């Protein structure tokens, strides 16, 4: 297996890893078990990967981590949106 194929498979799997969580949150409007700190740390780390990909001009790194950032930001927004309904 070439390193490009390996990197592409790894990028796809890691970038879609949080999609099931996002889908569940959006269906159930329930964020009780989500950790804001974990999401913030993950978004920062993924953003650094995007930056690294830009510096190296590596599109697989940029695209896969950029997609993961978007998914995780959606989760964080959902956390803030739906958490408010539990506070009231």
Describe, in short, the structure shown.
By secondary structure, the protein is mainly alpha-helical. The chain contains four helices and no strands.
Which key phrases capture this entry?
88 residues, mainly alpha, Monooxygenase, 4 helices, 0% strand
SSE diagram, text form:
Layout: H1 3-16, H2 19-28, H3 36-56, H4 59-87
Helix pairs in contact: 1-4, 2-4, 3-4
Keywords: Membrane, Transmembrane, Transmembrane helix
Transmembrane segments: 6-23, 35-55, 61-80
Membrane topology: Multi-pass membrane protein
Largest sheet: none
Return Rg in Å: 15 Å
Query: The CATH topology, please?
Result: Monooxygenase
Oligomer: single chain
Residues in helices, as a percent range? over 70%
Strand tally? 0
Number of domains: 1
CATH domain class name? Mainly Alpha
From the N-terminal CA to the C-terminal CA, the straight-line distance is 54 Å
Strand content: under 5%
CATH architecture: Up-down Bundle
Class by alpha and beta content: mainly alpha
Low-confidence stretches: none
Number of helices: 4
The helix-strand sequence is HHHH
Mean pLDDT: 90
Shape: elongated
Keywords: Membrane, Transmembrane, Transmembrane helix
InterPro entries: PQ-loop_rpt, SemiSWEET
Main location: membrane
Transmembrane segments: 6-23, 35-55, 61-80
Structural notes for this entry:
Helices cover 84% and strands 0% of the residues. It has 88 residues and is mainly alpha-helical. The chain has a single domain, classed as Monooxygenase (Up-down Bundle). Helix 2 runs parallel beside helix 4. The longest helix is centred in the last third of the chain and has 29 residues.
């Amino acid at each position: 297996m070439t390193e490009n194929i390996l990197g592409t498979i790894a990028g796809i799997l890691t970038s879609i890893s949080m999609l099931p969580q996002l889908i569940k949150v959006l269906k159930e409007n329930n964020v009780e078990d989500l950790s804001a700190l974990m999401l913030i740390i993950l978004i920062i780390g993924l953003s650094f990967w995007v930056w690294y990909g830009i510096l190296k001009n590596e599109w697989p790194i940029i695209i896969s981590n950029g997609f993961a950032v978007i998914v995780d930001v959606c989760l964080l927004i959902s956390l803030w949106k739906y958490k408010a309904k539990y506070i009231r």
